Amino acid sequence: MLKWSRPDLAFITENSEILRSVKRAGSDTAPANIFLLAPKYDTQTAAQDRAVFRYYNGSKPNRRGYGFPIAPEPSDLPALIETLYRDANERGVPLEFCLCDERQKAALDSVCTIDWKCTEDDSDYIYKKESLASLAGKKLHRKRNHINNFMRVYDDVRYSPISRENKADAVKAAELWLKERENADADELAEFECIKLAADNIDTLGLVGGMLYVGSEPAAMTIASHITAQTVDVHYEKSYGEYAENGGFTVINRLFAESLPEECDLINREEDMGIEGLRAAKESYFPAFKLKKYYGVCRC
User: Fold this and answer.
1) Is 65 found in the same domain as 130?
2) Whole domain around residue 80: which residue ranges?
3) Rounded distance, CA 267 to CA 38, Å?
4) What pTM was computed for the model?
């Protein structure tokens, strides 16, 4: 049986080489997400044979089961699946998988038989960096209007990369966003706790992002991390009050995209979780593609 435990910072650090060997764009493989979202999905991790294994104990089938093993390529997938098969038998749980993309699904199909299911709520929205940085073309003219409006309304607008020096401002922006939700639900409260945890561990988790200021006041924030050198994953993005009404979300989105290094080509803005307003917001930026995620139980 694998030795499972809740992923802590020590686990992320000790296994950073393996975790950063990923050649996929999925948000679930971002080391920061493995750590930050562990309480939400009761995630357990284990490391063995130069691979990191994940098990999700979510309340729904699409967040329950093993994640695709994370290992440097090429890896011996049949051996890794055999490890999970034995683990599932010893623990008395089904050999089921979740959060698998198309390529991972195909790889698993080559070694076992799985009854796959898919929900659009799980699909990651992937954008070309150039698209979000330039907002060029007729489809995105409204976004350019939002930015122009923000710049007309406010003087002394500036952007600063997120760091240990301004992490308190990121938390402040998120706190002011939360205060606007008089009846904040459990997910929103948990998200705020994750933002504080992320801010406290910017360097250890390798987080990037930025702050939008109007004068000395934080107007918006974003926190992200690199899944690969070519793909960055946006974990949190917040604005509030009149700043949000006047285009704060659009401004921080564009300025962060502009700040990314040349080799970074894709921006993953994660799933919409079936929330209609969030889905509409993500669709309004016209993603280059959606990365579907599958879940299912093995019949082997």
Assistant:
1) no
2) 9-123
3) 22
4) 0.96
Are residues 171 and 261 located together in one domain of the fold? yes
8 A C-beta contact, residue 166 and residue 160: yes
Assigned domain for 88 exists:
yes
167 and 231 assigned to the same domain: yes
Residue 278 lies in a domain: no
Q: Put residue 204 in one of left, alpha, beta given phi > 0 → left and psi -120 to 50 → alpha.
A: alpha
What contacts 267, CB < 8 A, 6 or more positions away?
A: 126, 127, 128, 129, 132, 231, 232, 234, 257, 260
Where among 123, 158, 178 does a domain terminate? 123
- From CA 260, how far away is CA 266, in angstroms rounded? 10
- Is the predicted pLDDT of residue 300 greater than 90, yes or no? no
Find out whether 42 and 63 touch, Cβ atoms under 8 Å.
Answer: no
Residue 237's pLDDT band (cuts 50, 70, 90): very high
The rounded percent of the chain whose pLDDT value lies above 90 is: 95
Q: Are 45 and 11 in contact (CB under 8 A)?
A: yes
Confidence of residue 23 (pLDDT cuts 50, 70, 90): confident
Q: For residues 10 and 165, what is the distance between their CA atoms, to the nearest angstrom?
A: 23
pLDDT above 90 (res 130): yes
Separation between Cα atoms, residue 8 and residue 44, nearest integer Å: 10
Say how many C-beta atoms besides its own lie within 10 A of residue 175's C-beta: 14
Could you read off the pLDDT of 139-174 as tens digits, one per residue? 999 999 999 999 999 999 999 999 999 999 999 999
**Omega prior to 74 cis, within 30 of 0:** yes
